Recover the amino acids of this structure.
């Protein structure tokens, strides 16, 4: 459940980042010379890495939470 919620937040963040990146890409074209700004491979790679890190982090946190004693956590 914790991992699923983390995945949902990660996917929402990746989608929001992609939309923001597309909006800022026009400004970046005038700043960055010689590099393709609208390279879909870079966008997909960054999204996959970000979502993968979020899933791993959520899984580690869920594992740690499952190993914790409830009475100890509430004190």
């Amino acid at each position: 459940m914790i991992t699923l919620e983390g995945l949902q937040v990660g996917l929402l963040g990746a989608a929001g980042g992609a939309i923001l990146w597309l909006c800022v890409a026009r400004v970046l074209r005038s700043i960055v010379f010689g590099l393709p700004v609208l390279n879909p491979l870079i966008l997909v790679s960054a999204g996959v890495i970000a979502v993968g890190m979020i899933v791993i982090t959520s899984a580690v946190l869920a594992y740690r939470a499952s190993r914790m004693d409830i009475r100890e956590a509430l004190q």
